[in-house]
């Protein structure tokens, strides 16, 4: 069994993860993780629990992407013919390899999609800050220019004493 997760949005991009077995024993516990991959062998039949906790920052919602992989043991076959058995086993092995490679590619694409969303959010935030700062600088430059014009005008103004 396996679990892969990543926090896409929210707060400091951290979350607590706990994996519990059917006997209520904690298999894995991790605090303030932003992403992770954990694989383990199921030691008994039953319901395994994946718990993601946002206890540290309850005011901020989180967007979390996770995938669970469950691999079952392969059943052994008792074929009649030895030649058919080897060809059949080779074909099954190739199909199994292709399936696992396809699943790995799918998970990698999902991971890249989440990373792209996180980086897009960071870039948009940085872009808006840069635009606001540039607008503030333009306003300050205009105010300073007007102040200097009025100051220089007053400086060169001729005052008559009557």
Automatic annotation (TrEMBL):
Residues 1-70 form the GOLD domain. InterPro entries: Emp24-like, GOLD_dom, GOLD_dom_sf. It holds the Pfam family EMP24_GP25L. It comes from the Eukaryota. Keywords: Developmental protein, Membrane, Signal, Transmembrane, Transmembrane helix. It is a single-pass membrane protein; Single-pass type I membrane protein. The chain crosses the membrane at residues 130-152. It is found in: Endomembrane system; Membrane. The keyword Iron-sulfur does not apply. SUPFAM superfamilies: Supernatant protein factor (SPF), C-terminal domain. GO terms for cellular component: endomembrane system; membrane. PROSITE patterns: GOLD (PS50866). Belongs to the EMP24/GP25L family. This is GOLD domain-containing protein.
């Amino acid at each position: 069994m396996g679990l892969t997760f990543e926090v896409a949005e929210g707060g400091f991009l951290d979350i607590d993860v706990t994996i519990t077995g059917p006997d209520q024993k904690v298999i894995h516990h991790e605090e303030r993780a932003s992403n992770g991959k954990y694989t383990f062998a199921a030691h008994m039949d039953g319901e395994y629990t994946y718990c993601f906790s946002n206890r540290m920052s309850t005011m901020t919602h989180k967007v979390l992407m996770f995938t669970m992989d469950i691999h079952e043991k392969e059943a052994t076959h008792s074929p009649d013919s030895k030649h058919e058995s080897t060809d059949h086993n080779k074909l099954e092995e190739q199909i199994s390899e292709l399936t696992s490679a396809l699943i790995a590619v799918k998970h990698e694409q999902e991971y890249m999609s989440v990373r792209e969303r996180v980086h897009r959010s960071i870039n948009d935030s940085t872009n808006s800050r840069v635009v606001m700062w540039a607008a503030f600088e333009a306003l300050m430059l205009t105010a300073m220019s007007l102040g200097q014009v009025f100051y220089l005008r007053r400086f060169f103004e001729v005052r008559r004493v009557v």
